[in-house]
PX domain-containing protein (Polarella glacialis), 556 residues
Amino acid sequence: MPGAMKRPAAAMSGGPPGGPLRVACLGDSNTVGCGLGRSGSYPSRLQKILDRDVGDGLVQVRNFGVSGTTAVETPGKKYYVDEEKFQRAMEFGPHYFVVMLGTNDAWHQAGEPDKVADAIDSLLIELGRQGGRRGSAGGSAAGEMASVLIVLPPGAKPGRLLENLKNVHMDMRLRASTWTRDDPDTILVDPELPVETSYRPDLVHLSAEGAETLALAVAKKLMGPRLQNDISRTAFCKCLAPPAMSSLADLSASVHKASPTVDHSTYQYHIKLQLGSASWEVTKRFSEFDTLLQSLGNSRYAGLPRVPAKTLWGSPTDNAAIDARKEQLRIILQDLLLRPDTRTSQQVRTFLSIDSHTDDGAIRTLQPEPLRTFEDPRFGVSGICVAPEANLLLVTHEDSTHLSRLGRVWSVVEPDELGALHLWAKHSDGSWKRSYSQTFGIKVRSLAWESLSRQFFVGLEDGKIQVYAFAEGSTQPDVTCTLELHHKSPVTHLSVSTRKLLSLGLDTAMRVIDVHSRELVCGGRLLKRLRSDMDYLSSGFLDDERDRAFIGTSGG
């Protein structure tokens, strides 16, 4: 079967024992970085990301792109496998190949885009035929196979290129299940490039933003268990977690004594801290602990410990009371330092003078910062789907109050509105605006987005699933059909792939349908698999590549 041949890494001709893991980027001008300069290409950006997130010097990325090359061996075209750089890539001895070819096949007038998926099959076989075995340069056992990441070729120019690429992407997605089944180390990468920001004016070549988005997508796929295991076997293994986080986790603090303040109005508590070889001491009053916790609360940190209540007689003066308060403050410090989010907060770092005893900028705050709020104050959120390739955010809402069961009988003007669908579009200036809204007289329970066909599915409380799609060039969705799969029982969850839709209902039934023909593929009720009659199907995931589904229940 094409693509079934394993791909051992080429014989290692360079690199000392324990050297870096090697990544070879194969492709055309979008790999070269046409118009972006030497440091602007996606391989250069990938190197920077891996240095930052994995460890400086642990992974070496090299660019083997050749402008104008094709994936298909078309007469008169520049076939990539025939290029000298392909041979140099094999001699480089990669542990990981990143292949991004097909744009020129779709763009050239005499190209053969319908053969790109077959050509990738042939390339996978070629990598195996010319490859050797991993050697000591990567620290891996001889005979271990190299991983291959296959990137969907970019391009957004309307007309021949865009239409051909749609078919190329479809073919590659369908073929990906075979690639993955034959070799789990073959991975398809969809960089989901927003058209508005990812391309230069010709809509063929990547912009700086597009190269960065692509590099991030490839890095995300690379930084998996395989890479971690490979790095752990190198002679200069480094921790994959950011060093500042692991070192800060070693911070210890103890309240070792209390002493009167200068004016003898109250007591101050001496806190001894140890971080690696550094040790220091800070003194804090009881009221400063209270101020610290209030500041953390105002910054949306939750689940914080409480400061002991003050006594009617003011600050404690006897030794027993002081020792008790020291222990209480020690517990508060311990709670704050055990949590990664609070111990890295600016408030705690300032309180304990941590920054002055660590490298500047070495500590990363974990508290997320909200950038934009999308809300419908009438309802709760029942589903969210993000569509970066369409610059859309889809949100469904439902009335979650007890009164929603009765309907809004107190109003004779407003009809019952128990659910809503909102689409938010991102504009070129970075702002988000609501582009479409629809309200329902019943609850909207679930939502799923399918990017390839640009359609989405909305599950309702009456068991129906409304199917929406975007016409070519339109920003407004149209209802294309309504599916009835659960006999008036609420649709509890939807999961979709490029070919199939998984639907779960409160009737304990699962249904899998073809997203194009709407025909039922398989299904049935799972009542006998539940722990009790009160349980229901609550969540699921459709793994179409391996032809399986994962289903969660309310009973665990």
Summary: The longest helix spans residues 160-182. The chain has three domains: 21-232, 245-357, 380-553. The CA atoms of residues 46 and 215 lie 5 Å apart. The chain has a mean pLDDT of 83.
